[in-house]
């Protein structure tokens, strides 16, 4: 650890990495990735047949939870993103059987609205994205030339829910509460569940209860994991970190001089995906802390993320 | 008229086709549905925890197959549908950590392009759709008021692949070859696999090998199941019928005076979903005829269908 | 005036038409149009070379006023309409001269947002639109088969501004003030300007001063012309009625039991176009009451309206 | 360096081309613009009330020509651009008067498809655009921060048609015929028309006759003006150069090592706008070589161009 690095830690600005040494935002070298300089899949490389069988082992009751929210006009949207769905007039088909069909016309930033799965081309650090890919080398108008969401593949693995709201004895964490490592470990201990490499971890904050109830409050800020908690999860070698808020991490950040540091930490430095705006309330309600998590991103060529309806099965 | 056919007629459920072997969709009473006059989910009602555990039992090796094709500009599109994906300039975020993010802007008839899952609001018979819903009662500009894809829920069940191409000893069936009941039963017998209520059935025709190789031929016509084969599958009480072609059924139809009769039969009369443009070649190549089929349609409020990346696990 | 008609007047619901007898919404026959049963252009038929020369005569100073507002994200939108503009990454071109270009990606209900020109396929009376066209005969998914905006052609004619706000000694009329015939005639007399057949009439209410200043108030209601005023303008044989509000007419209507009666009166019954969200403040400020009005709708095949930047020249 | 070239250098304005007769876009200083370092309107600064009165003087007969083509699905599109228009189901309004309305949903690169007016943010030279604006300084996702089409304002000026096809005695120039200065001056002499500062010049090539007749040929290449011809037009101090082809200039260029050099010359170096895919055939047919050209770009905030329906009046 260089002197410069210590200085950074001292400012409190980039308190990332530490004992593990793998996940810092400062001077240290965070690429090439542990999966090689040409890897585009990041933590999806942790998915194996063994993890699929781990997931299988969770399916004890045959109960399925939909973790995806309904996509609808009027839902919370970040920044200048939009979502529109319209039904054009029906198309009659020729023939005496009077076949007629409907389509739907959809427009929007589809990988980054509603329940959304962030791919490795979504967030970068300056000009650098996952595996040190320079923005100018892969970001083009017709779809990302690298790190597109089509590279992820299907995710079938063990999932763990950490109900931090319950651990803190609230229905909903306040914003911008920054979830600490102790919150995660404490809740896991209470839940008697451990995280294993290749798992997906979902953090229940209760913030999702504002969805379509009070969109203004929902979007203005958010409780979420701290940089240290993100680092700890990265050290656990997870594949995806999800939550029932719009950014997984706390907004605004603890350090007022940074934006989205957990996105940078997980996506860019560790190749770990984010899953946002998840409907975790069913799992939380039923006390389901271990389950099969199944999500196959839409294979949108060159996209930064994917919409979808991930599921949990126990 | 075969004995099996008579049996079907006897159930009163599928009085389709007649002496001529083609559809007569007018006479018989096909609604209210067997799940009640208010049902909007059709064959998804066949999904139960027991079927989830059926699916679980298929997962013997932990191997996952992506059945969804890549969505990309230039892919085959039906009629006047379109698909566009663009990457706008990156958004820099405030702060000294130099966070920057990309979105993607997508426009298209998203439930009805590429790998697509047809919902019950997609195809009707004259003014009537599934469960006798009149078009004028539910089809409105801002999203279908009934039968929207958000009603389906997640599908986790046993899947069966019927490799008709292999059964006919060809890599790809010719168009518009109309797959008969005998083709299905013959192939199943050869494969030593049976269909059970609540299953998803995928029909491999080989037509999908033309995808992005010869789009003009791919879209001009198609081999697919006949009305009689659709009727037989309906009698098996399946949930979804999928295929590696763009319409599941043969185009043009055997009867030159009708369009999309299998769509009407399965969607409108039986509440059975269609899954089109599936990438079944991996399953066929590996001889995987039984598997867990998992697909959770995007919960697009009021949509006629859903894009997605369904998976098969064995 | 028949007995039935008197009854209608008595209910107060459809107090439309009167002395002129040409523009009623009740029992009377309002189609075929005066331009024949096959006409699709309505009052655009009043445009002639002579009217172009009328417009020419207005151009005394060579001063041009842009009457179109800026289209931008965040502008007021009616109902579930949307507007999105994004700049994708630049496209570099091959060659040593380093050519590179930008596009913009736009999505929205483009004929019906911002400054908008309503075509004859926009508003109907039950199932009937201009010239008695039945909705089921021309409204299809891929663009209106009749009455599309591409039929209008370019409009070059004399324009008249009626500054009702000034006449009422206010900067902005209150909502939902319903502008009377007396308001129009009084203001015209004060302005010493008359309306001639084939003119375009713009009504300045001051409501446009709320645009992008207080969008919530702007869109919640509106001052505008009454049914009687619309009828009077129709009797003057104008081509277009425009205003600096979002619907030309008062919202809500004087009669609480009707919606958009002036749209029906002008578009459906008289083939007279509406031009909404105009920036009339420049003309009002400078006291320009006569001018050349020039607008050529985008030739969007089968569209209900057109965006644009109409101009006034004096 | 030839004598002709020296003469050009002498003007100081257009140091383009060299011994090879092709562009050298690097050496000379082409910014700040003649209208100052902060100017965003380029040649639109040449528009004055006097030019409006010039336009007025052209209106001798009151005849109006629409120069905009119909926007329709299936029209020729460059690169990966798209255009979609759909009519959603009609919206019924409350009230006993049965008001009902239609919208249209449009998606596409609207400033750069069909009849299109290229703004100063469209094409650059490496990282530099008009007035030396660096791409990184103004090109952002939510709309160009400088050089957006909303800065242009309305164009009302004298227009000149140069019918090069007629001059060369053909209905349609071959592709990629490169129109020379001699072609322009010869045709103008034959037509007995001169170009004056502040004019708009339209070049008729006949290539537009392929529009919607043979889209493949139309888009594969194009006759158009040479760099030298562009330079000559720039020296005439025009405001816009338009044509009935898709790029005004010849494609491919005479010099196989460059792309779109005339775009760079006119837009970036001279602030002169391009108007593409114009319907000039009516003017050519009627021998109308002088007219009022009127076009007001849609005020699309931050857009690179504008669709529209420019008109010519004589």
Descriptive labels:
two-stranded antiparallel sheet; homotetramer; 314 residues; 9 helices
What topology does this entry show?
Four copies of one chain form a homotetramer.
Chain A: H1 3-11, H2 49-58, E1 64-66, E2 83-86, E3 91-92, E4 99-101, E5 105-108, E6 116-118, E7 123-125, E8 128-129, E9 133-134, H3 135-138, E10 155-163, H4 164-167, E11 178-179, H5 181-191, E12 200-204, H6 215-220, E13 224-225, H7 227-235, E14 240-243, H8 261-270, E15 273-276, H9 281-286, E16 290-295, E17 305-307, E18 311-313
Parallel strand pairs in A: 10-12, 11-13, 12-14, 14-15
Antiparallel strand pairs in A: 1-18, 2-5, 3-4, 6-15, 6-17, 8-9, 10-16, 16-18
Structure description:
Four copies of one chain form a homotetramer. Chain A is α/β, with parallel strands linked by helices and 314 residues long. The first copy, chain A, contains nine helices and 18 strands. A nine-stranded mixed β-sheet of chain A has the order 1-18-16-10-12-14-15-6-17. In chain A, helix 7 packs parallel to helix 8. The relative contact order of chain A is 0.22. The N terminus of chain A is likely disordered. At the A-B interface, helix 2, strand 4, strand 5, strand 7 and helix 8 of A face helix 2, strand 4, strand 5, strand 7 and helix 8 of B. Strand 4 of chain C pairs antiparallel with strand 7 of chain D, so a sheet runs across the interface.
